[in-house]
Amino acid sequence: MAALLGIVFPVTFPGHGQLPVKTRRRSVVKSSSSSDERQTLFNRIAPVYDNLNDLLSLGQHRIWKNMAVSWSGLDKNSISFVCLKKIFVFLMLGLVYIEVRARTGDKVLDLCCGSGDLAFLLSEKVGSSGKVMGLDFSSEQLAVAASRQKLRGRSCYRCIEWIEGDATDLPFDDCEFDAITMGYGLRNVVDRDRAMREMCRVLKPGSRVSILDFNKSNQSVTAFMQDWMIDNVVVPVATLYDLAKEYEYLKYSINGYLTGEELETLASEAGFSRASHYEISGGFMGNLVAVR
C-alpha cells in the first residue's frame, strides 16, 4: 500500500561536505514566516530525504520523476497517435513513458531541486554540452545534492550548477531555459501564483514546464487513502528518524494544495498558452505540463 501512495519526501548522505566551487549562492527572498518554517523543515529532513523516499514509495518515485523529465521536453510540433496511445497505457499503469525528453545541448532548470534527483536525470538528457541549473531554498538539501554529484562519474553530471534561491524570485533572465521541471515543490511554495509567473518568464516561448507532485484528488476514496497512509505508514516510519512532526506536515500541505483543474487555471493565468494535468499512480500523484 505504501507503493500505491508513493510518499516522496525523497534520504542520502549524513556527511554533506562543502558545495563545489562552481556553485553560485544567491540571497534567499523569504515572503513570510511560513516560508521560513518550511525552509527549516527541509533543512532538517535533508540527511534522510532520499532514503525515506525510496522506502516509503518502494522506489516508485524514480519512475514518476523520469516521467516528469520526459514531459518537460515533448516534441514542440506534434505527437503521433501511436505516441498518445503509449502515454495513455503507461499512465493507466502508473509507469513511465520515455520517448520524448529534454534534448542534447538544452539549458534546463530544476526548481525546488532538493537532493538533485530530477537534476541528475535532466543532465543525462542534455549531455555534457547542455546545462542544468538546480535551485532550492534549502542549503542543506543543496549540500546533499553536491555530495551526490561528487560521487557520480559521468561527464554529464558536471554540467549541473546548484543555486540557493527563491522560486518566487528567480535569478535568471527572461526566456533563458528550454525546459523546467519541479518535483514536489509547488505545493510547498507560499506564493504559487508568483512562482508560476516566474517560471513562465524564464522559459523560452514554446517550451514546457513539468510539475510533479501529490495529487489533490476530488475522489473521496483517494483522499481518504492518502490521509490514512500518511497517518498509519508515513508518520510512524518518520518517527523512527525522529521526524514525526516534519512528516505530519505532509497531509496538511496536500489538503491545502490545488486540484488538477485549479493547477491548469493557475498556469493559464500566469501566462502559459496551454496546460494539462495528468493523474498517475491511481490518482495519488499528478503531473502538470504547461506550454509557454
UniProtKB/TrEMBL annotation:
Protein name: 2-phytyl-1,4-beta-naphthoquinone methyltransferase, chloroplastic
Cited Pfam families: Ubie_methyltran (PF01209)
Role of this protein: Involved in the biosynthesis of phylloquinone (vitamin K1). Methyltransferase required for the conversion of 2-phytyl-1,4-beta-naphthoquinol to phylloquinol.
EC class name: transferase
Originating species: Brassica campestris (Field mustard)
Positions of transmembrane segments: none
Keywords: Chloroplast, Methyltransferase, Plastid, S-adenosyl-L-methionine, Transferase
One MF term in the entry's GO annotations: 2-phytyl-1,4-naphthoquinone methyltransferase activity
Entry keyword annotation includes Chloroplast: yes
EC assignment: 2.1.1.329
The keyword Nucleotide-binding belongs to this UniProt entry's keyword annotation: no
Compartments, as annotated in UniProt: Plastid, Chloroplast
GO-annotated cellular components: chloroplast
Domain of life of the native organism: Eukaryota
HAMAP family named in the record: MenG_phylloquinone_subfam (MF_01982), MenG_UbiE_methyltr (MF_01813)
Family annotation (InterPro entries): MenG (IPR032904), SAM-dependent_MTases_sf (IPR029063), UbiE/COQ5_MeTrFase (IPR004033), UbiE/COQ5_MeTrFase_CS (IPR023576)
GO BP, sorted A to Z: methylation; phylloquinone biosynthetic process
Subcellular location, principal: plastid
Membership in a protein family: Belongs to the class I-like SAM-binding methyltransferase superfamily. MenG/UbiE family.
Annotated catalysed reactions: demethylphylloquinol + S-adenosyl-L-methionine = phylloquinol + S-adenosyl-L-homocysteine + H(+)
